[in-house]
Each structure stands twice: as C-alpha cells, then as structure tokens.
C-alpha cells in the first residue's frame, strides 16, 4: 500500500539542517522519537522535501518564545509515490507561525494560494462584523496577560477564522 503522511510532527530530524536559533544559549531540541524512525523505516517512507533539498536549510515554524526556526511540518511518503511528485515547496507564511508546504502531483496544475478578496473590505456588513469581533477579542485578551507578539499572532488566527466562516 502506498502511504502519504503529512502534518506538524512537533519534532525535527536533523538539528544542523532543521533548526536555527537567535539565542546564544541553545536549549535541547526535540528530535523525533526512535519509534518514529522505526516506523518510517518499516513502512519505507521518505521525507519528500528533504529528498529534493538535501542540504538546504528552510524552516516551517517560528517560535517567538524561543526566537527559533525549525522544520517540523513534513510530508513523508512511500518510495513508489516519490516519482509522482512534480514539485514541493515551503512557502512563506503570513497569517500563522507555520509556513505552508505545497506539493504538486505530476499532471496537476499548480494552484495559487488563497488570498482575501479585497472587495469585501469595503462592505459595511464585513466592517461591522470585524469591528464587533475584534473589540470582543481585545477585551478578552488583555495586553497585560500575554506578549504583544502572542496577541498579534492569536488575533491573526482569530480573524482568519471569522473571514473564512
């Protein structure tokens, strides 16, 4: 059976390639557990992004708290499927602390990333809803209780949920 496993694995494979910190005192990095490596070996799974970018340093997650970047979002797949992939890229994230990974199967046209239709920004109903929701958000998330960066990141995710809904 062919398998494609993807997601936020909350751990890295290689500290030299998959992690970078601005802090001089490094804390121990969370390497994926041995059971994960046994599983991918047994199931014959490959890290498709790393297969195509052997020595490249590119990260999918930024931790504001630790001032660090890491590649914890990955796509693993059966060897047979590797040849079916036309392209794989880590894109720039704008609304979240994770960067999206796009993968294009051979024969599939690459899709553009979703972008907000700016026309709705002028609609009175949208402006009223956003004003109400953001007033509620900032009332519930007082600046004294968390960092400004955390409030900003949370507000972006909250806003995205309202806009998409």
TrEMBL record:
InterPro entries: Endo/exonu/phosph_ase_sf. PANTHER family: REVERSE TRANSCRIPTASES. This is Endonuclease/exonuclease/phosphatase domain-containing protein. It comes from Micrurus paraensis.
